[in-house]
Amino acid sequence: MKRNAQYHKNVIILGGGACGLLAGITAGRTGASVAILEHNARVGKKILATGNGRCNLTNLALDPAAYHCGNAEVLTQVLGRFSVEDTLNFFHEIGVLTTEKNGWVYPVSNQATTVLDALRFELNHLHNVTVITDYTAERIEKRDNGFIVHGAVTEKGTLPETYRGDTLIVAVGGLASPKSGSDGSAYPLIKSLGHRFRSQVPGLTGLRCAEDYFKSIAGVRAQGRVTLWVDDTSVAQEQGEIQFTNSGISGIPVFQICRTASYGVKEKAKVRVTLDLFPEKERDWLKDELTRRIQRFGSRTVEELLCGFLHKKLIFALCKLSGLQPSSSVLRADEASWNRFLDYMKALPATIIESQGFENAQVTAGGILLEDVRAKDLSSIEVEGLYFAGEVLDIDGPCGGYNLQWAWSSGYVTGKAAAERSLHDSRS
Question: How far apart are CA 415 and CA 20, in angstroms?
């Protein structure tokens, strides 16, 4: 085959991530000829990082209301056509046994490689599906009878650079984790087809804070409650294990509020958090406990008195903020300092500067406006035969398998619709 020759398929899929692979398998099973064009040297690279390398496939208690999206009708229709149960059945069918913990579903192997390998093996046995890696799309041309994707293949040889398709599925991901291939390089191509984007910010990542005390508590993990404030209004609250870093805070409760904080920063609002380090106890209880300790251990130092209250690094940091000297006698500490210490335990303040960026984010918030796609199949209202799937759309969810479920559902719906449209037109 000569290079630069046009190579015809019923369905072309841009992107070989989770939703692109599911779309390819679905379209192939429907009977369409398919080409998956992947930017990386191998498909599914981002899958390997999900669930801390364990791949949190989905969630048994998936709540559509937990997603962030501009059009709930789009979300509910797509999730309704390929549900959590459909996801579990699909992966069981291709050989992946699953287990769950608190509703979060993982492969029994606890290895994300299991999920990717099973998807690849299934693709390998669909002889009507071709996977091209190291492919960079440079231009999309819309024709009356379909699409022509012009690009370049890094690998030298006889691979075609130009593909013709009756239908086109764009599953290129977002901006999160660019090292996995989600680098936004295909966005200009999407915009050239007349599609609009909601501004994008990092989601599911840590937050950087202005205060310098974080350097002294880096590496500490503590159960707590995070309250997010935007322009002095409480807008979100999450509880769980908070991880302290050199530059701020991380951990699942921080991930859950990250998108809201990121949009606040982007809009130049005043964004801050307060951290409750004793979410299960009221301040009065803590005050009574502190008073009891002072009465019993009054001859000890402040450090000795507070031993067992918190992680030692946190005790030292809160003492410094409160004006307490850990090595000083308890009897020398004044009531105002103890009150400040109690206040910090229940509402440690931090000013949010920014998130930890797309390079550390698990998902992208924002994307193609849902007003521009049809709810039934994610087809473009602007361009017939064009479909969008996965993270490229303005839909994102919290931790716990939500974003992969959206990838599977949108991949299935678009793969089925694009294949059926192409096959129907070819028979007409």
Answer: 8
Element spanning 245, H or E: none
88 CB burial (10 A radius; 0-12, 13-18, 19+): middle
pTM of the model: 0.93
Tokens of 207: 């937050």
3-state secondary structure of 221: strand
Range list of β-strands (E), 4-134: 6-14, 34-37, 58-59, 68-69, 98-101, 104-107, 129-132
Largest CA distance in the chain: 92
For 284-295, b/e burial (b = at least 16 CB within 10 A) is eebeeebeebee
Helix and strand totals (H; E) in the chain: 12, 20
Q: How many Å apart are CA 32 and CA 55, to the nearest integer?
A: 29
Residues 6+ away with beta carbon under 8 Å from 421: 166, 167, 385
Distance in angstroms (rounded) separating the CA atoms of residues 410 and 391: 9
Q: What is the pLDDT of residues 146-182, one digit of tens each?
A: 999 999 887 655 677 899 999 999 999 999 998 888 8
Rounded-to-integer distance, Cα 202 and Cα 190, Å: 20
